[in-house]
């Protein structure tokens, strides 16, 4: 795996090619002060954060909130990004009021425990910030995304190689886990498929495995195979759970390096 391969897997490298097959998304550059706040060693939430007992809030950023334990001095230390927060608020509204956040490559899935429902559903900047701040996956994207590349030297472990960190906000959909599949591509051939949620059994998958295989392979061969520039990778697809063959397929995540 080389640096150029990882860059090709970045969301902004493939999204516009496959935009018509995935949910609406908006990506923007992360400001330097936001990056610095997310990557420093202190766990301090921004001033706009709402009282949540350490978990994501269902309340709006417009709600009033005060914390008796938050002294004036501590409040002054908490970061604030008014222009960036206002911009994100408008994007969230344009995407229906609920979004799924990720960075160039990774979503903060390892921080889903911070959410009341265990999902990555976000309604406010505070929700997004808390997930990213709590995530090792996000920290890796921001500080050392090319650390394991074969052409990265030890001295370059934390080098970003001109890769600008971005924040991706994707329109939220309640995807059913039995419809999510991971596809493994080797030498541009789809060689294996498995369900994404590997710790659960879905009877519908077993009952309709041939239809599922047919639909996923057909979608890959027609829509992805000759349009993505890597030879070996994984891609996550969603097939609406149904007994019908020929169900529509949606691209969940593309370009994950295998």
Structure description:
- Residues 52-77 are annotated as: Disordered.
- Keywords: Cell cycle, Cell division.
- Residues 60-71 have a biased composition (Acidic residues).
- Pfam families: D123.
- InterPro entries: CDC123.
- There is one protein chain.
- The protein has 258 residues and is an alpha+beta fold.
- It folds into 2 domains: 1-43 and 77-172, no CATH class; 175-257.
- Helices cover 30% and strands 17% of the residues.
- It is built from 9 helices and 7 strands.
- It has helices at residues 3-9, 11-14, 32-39, 72-77, 82-94, 125-134, 136-143, 203-207, 209-224, and strands at 25-29, 99-102, 166-171, 180-186, 189-195, 233-239, 249-256.
- The strands form 2 sheets. A 4-stranded antiparallel beta sheet has the order 5-4-6-7. A 3-stranded antiparallel beta sheet has the order 1-3-2, with no helix packed on it.
- Strand 4 (180-186) and strand 5 (189-195) form a beta hairpin.
- The N and C termini lie close together (9 Å).
- Residues 61-68 have low confidence and may be disordered.
Give a short synopsis of this structure.
By secondary structure, the protein is α+β, with helices and mostly antiparallel strands.
- The total number of structural domains is 2
Radius of gyration: 20 Å
Mean pLDDT: 86
Q: Write down the overall geometry.
A: globular
Structural class: alpha+beta
Percentage of residues in strands: 15-25%
Helices and strands, in order, run as: HHEHHHEHHEEEHHEE
Low-confidence blocks of residues: 61-68
Number of distinct beta strands: 7
Main-sheet strand order equals 5-4-6-7
Instruction: Determine the fraction of residues in helical runs and give it as a percent range.
Output: 25-40%
How would a crystallographer describe the biggest sheet? 4 strands, antiparallel
Number of helices: 9
- In whole angstroms, the N-to-C terminal distance is 9 Å
